[in-house]
Amino acid sequence: MLKKIFILLTVFLLQLSVYAQKTLAPTPPMGFMTWNYFADKLSEQDVRTITDAMVETGLRDLGFNHIFIDDGWQGGRDFKNNMIPDPKKFPSGMKALTDYVHAKGMKIGIYSDAASLTCAGYTASLNFEEQDAKTFAQWGFDYLKYDYCHAPADWQTAIALYEKMAKALQNSGREIVFGICEWGDRQPWLWARKAGGQLWRTTADVRDKWTAGVQPLNNKTLHAKGAGILDILNLNADLNHYAGPGGWNDPDMLVVGLYGKKGPSGDLGGVGCTDVEYRSQMSLWCLMAAPLMITCDVRNMNEATKRILTNRDIIAIDQDPLGIQAERIINNDTWQVFVKQLANGDVALGVLNVSDKTQTINIDLAALGITGKSNATDLWSKPKTKVKNTIKVQAASHETKVYRLAK
Ligand code: GLA
User: Fold this and answer.
1) Could you tell me if 50 and 168 lie in one domain?
2) Which domain range does residue 172 map to?
3) How far apart, in whole angstroms, are the C-alpha atoms of residue 185 and residue 198?
4) Helices 275-287 and 229-236 sit at what angle, rounded to 10 degrees?
5) Residue 39 within a domain
6) Among 40, 145, 201, 334, which has the minimal tally of Cβ within 10 Å of its Cβ?
């Protein structure tokens, strides 16, 4: 009898602990990331004005509810080895800043690296994981992007260093989402979730361009030549099986609205894209259930940029609670076709014209597993049509059409 009660109690407690474990990042994180616009020349004033703009433009209410501080905030360590922010850039200190952002109904992220120095050469967290995680928690941060510059190349060490920081965050006394950034060099989709990450970069840094046009297409060539939107798409699209609630493939930031601005995304041929290409990035990233990190100056967006970033129907595809990354079903020199199952039974269909001319295609829906009649809504231009068996799609060069198909 006593044994039975003991077993029942154990089962009950186990279930309780499963329920108590909250999924961090149940949908892909969204917000503004400082890197592509400010590089390491950021300040607390910039973070505040960007936060205000996120609220005023309505972006926060559309789900872009994080400010992700990237590299360049650090001012070294104090006499107790606690990390401190650069006093010139952040004179009011980090707690004042996180309070400001939280008071605006947003969350805030910070950045470090698994070596002694970050990519841009600032103080980083190797051998201070516990201490830094506690500092970030005490300051009130909700997210950590953890980079991998200057760290050992082998997989084993990388996994161990990421696990170490993940544990430190879990012991920090605050819920902190953990973004793994080793650029996909060690196939993090195979281990990052288990190591404690909620998202993991899958490629080299995005540049503000459509394609590097390099062969072979891999991280080595892209690190050297600069990854464009299409290149990243081609590396990230077939990793769909690894994404899901609490663990996302991260194909890097949105370059939408940067128009070739000098700086990190302007390097290596980042001369800027057309609005059609920027709209494609937004569409494709949403189909791929990617984290959405805006990097253009949201205080001064033109109409085209605003329209691209504030399309709530497209954002809903990204944030769909099922958390499925679209499957790329067709991939040839002219077309790429994506299908994403949605929580309410609808299906999102994405059609990218990769060629350099306007093209028309009749897509066999049944071959994509979409049978019977559906109502199709074009999520960019809004017309609704009834479709059965096929859908006729016309798309300009580099354009992505996105349809929501409902029964
Ligand atoms: C690496 C990352 C970028 C950015 C910079 C900062 O290149 O991949 O996203 O964080 O470092 O130095």
Assistant:
1) yes
2) 24-318
3) 17
4) 10
5) yes
6) 334
- Of 42-46, 174-178, 365-369, the one with minimum mean pLDDT is 365-369
- Tokens read off for 133: 């995680």
Catalytic-role residue among 113, 142, 205, 318 = 205
User: Distance between CA atoms of 183 and 322, rounded to whole angstroms?
Assistant: 26
Q: Alpha-carbon distance 277 to 399, whole Å?
A: 6
Give a three-class secondary structure readout of 333-388: CCEEEEEEECCCCCEEEEEEECCCCCEEEEEECHHHCCCCEEEEEECCCCCEEEEE
- The answer on 282 and 401 residing in a single domain is no
Q: Which atom of ligand 1 is found nearest the CA of 120?
A: 12
What was the pLDDT predicted at 22? 85
> Residues 147, 185, 231, 297: which is the catalytic one?
147
Active site residue 147: yes
Pocket test for ligand 1, best of 35, 41, 113 (most atoms within 8 A of CB): 35
User: For residue 354, what pLDDT is reported?
Assistant: 98
* Residue with CA at minimum distance from ligand 1 atom 8: 205
Atom of ligand 1 nearest to the CA of 204: 8
Nearest CA to ligand 1 atom 9: 205
pLDDT surpassing 80 at residue 8: no
